[in-house]
Amino acid sequence: MNINNVSAVSKMVANLVKNIPARNKDVISRRFGLKNGKKETLESIGKSYGITRERVRQIEEFAVNQLRKVSEGNQEVEKYVALAKNIINGNGEVMREKDLFRAFSGSEADSAVNSSLAFVLSLDKDIVRFSENENLHALWAVSADALNDFKNLAASTVAFIEKNKKVIPESNFVTLAENGGVSGLAGKFKAFLSVSKIVSKNIFNEIGLVSWPEIKPKGVRDKAFLVLKKGSTPKHFGEIAKSINTVGFNGKKANVQTVHNELIKDGRFILVGRGTYALSEWGYKAGTVKDVLVDLLKSSSKPLPKATIVSKVLNSRMVKENTILLNLQDSKIFMKNEDGTYSLRKA
Q1: What is the CATH code for 220-282?
Q2: Which strands make up the sheet holding 276-279, listed edge to edge?
Q3: Quick one: CA torsion of 239, 240, 245, 247, rounded to 10 degrees?
Q4: What is the 3-state secondary structure (H, E, C) of the chain?
Q5: Which fold, 289-344?
Q6: Residue 102 class from Cβ within 10 Å (0-12 exposed, 13-18 middle, 19+ buried)?
Q7: What does the pLDDT average to over 10-21?
Q8: What average pLDDT does the segment 335-341 reach?
Q9: Candidates 1.20.120.1760, 3.40.50.620, 1.10.10.10, 3.40.50.11030; correct CATH number of 3-125?
Q10: How confident is the model at residue 4 (pLDDT cuts 50, 70, 90)?
């Protein structure tokens, strides 16, 4: 919608409040940001008048109730309320405030137009605004019932994700969530994802908790973990750095040497070859080729032939066969049996 077409709402609101007492008009204007889109607190307004914040709240409440009665049957007011309700209903009966403003005026920024819309909506008996808290961004709902249903839905969706404990592709999130007991998400998932402060999606369109590094990577290590896991195969640290920069993340370029230095410090990454890293969650264990050989023979119930040893080590380390064979020649640790198999030398 073109902002020039909806700027008339500001003029309509100005006409609506012009006949109320001057102080009431000033309080309403400053509380809702009708002049410049900047809302003022009860305390700041109270200081300017030398009255308490509670008194300012009373004046605001009285003025809103007064204007609510005056606006009954006002076709201009009804037009904008109906427009906003249609937009919110199309979004699943709830909508993040910034998204509503963007849909209404073309901009999510604070402005007199958006503030005027918020004021008009506050005059309606049905539509309700939910103020921002630690879990949800500010939003509007078409009714109190719709708001309560959404809050319950949001809580059950978060609980499902916490129980699942891993990211889920956006493409099948709704199906999995509803199969997991979250009902009614299909028509409200877009709204939920926009409104929630707890849940988000990463650059690969996977859903999870914002606190998870796979969703909101905080540094080079988390970014490396994400691109490595997405690729599903071990990569050289130079290739990992390139992948980080290709994906983009926050636009900050990853330095190749920095990536290498950070991977060494993090137990999530296992060096499996010359400069090549894999994830420990893939089953790789830290250690040298010799350490791998010791673990392999220790876990075996019988001596192993050279071919089997080489094959198994190559599954966990990206090294040359000769490197494996050279390590096997350490007679203090390994013993070659008469049949050509190898075992650990007993202490």
Answers
A1: 1.10.10
A2: 235-236, 276-279, 269-273
A3: 110
A4: CCHHHHCHHHHHHHHHHCCCCHHHHHHHHHHHCCCCCCCCCHHHHHHHHCCCHHHHHHHHHHHHHHHHHHCCCCHHHHHHHHHHHHHHHCCCCEEEHHHHHHHHHCCCCCCHHHHHHHHHHHCCCCCEEECCCCCECCEEECCHHHHHHHHHHHHHHHHHHHHHCCCEEHHHHHHHHHHCCCCCCCCCHHHHHHHECCEEECCCCEEEECCCCCCCCCCHHHHHHHHHHHHCCCEEHHHHHHHHHHHCCCCCCCCHHHHHHHHHHCCCEEEEECCEEEEHHHCCCCCCHHHHHHHHHHHCCCCEEHHHHHHHHHHHCECCHHHHHHHHCCCCCEEECCCCEEEECCC
A5: Arc Repressor Mutant, subunit A (1.10.10)
A6: middle
A7: 89
A8: 92
A9: 1.10.10.10
A10: very low
Q: Global pTM?
A: 0.74
The rounded distance, in Å, linking the Cα atoms of 313 and 334 is: 15
> Does pLDDT of 329 surpass 60?
yes
pLDDT tens, position by position, 71-97: 888 888 998 899 999 999 999 999 999
Model confidence over 114-133: pLDDT tens digits?
Answer: 899 999 999 998 999 999 99
Domain boundaries, the chain: 3-125, 144-209, 220-282, 289-344
Could you give the C-alpha distances from 174 to 189, 211, 245, in angstroms and in order? 7, 21, 31
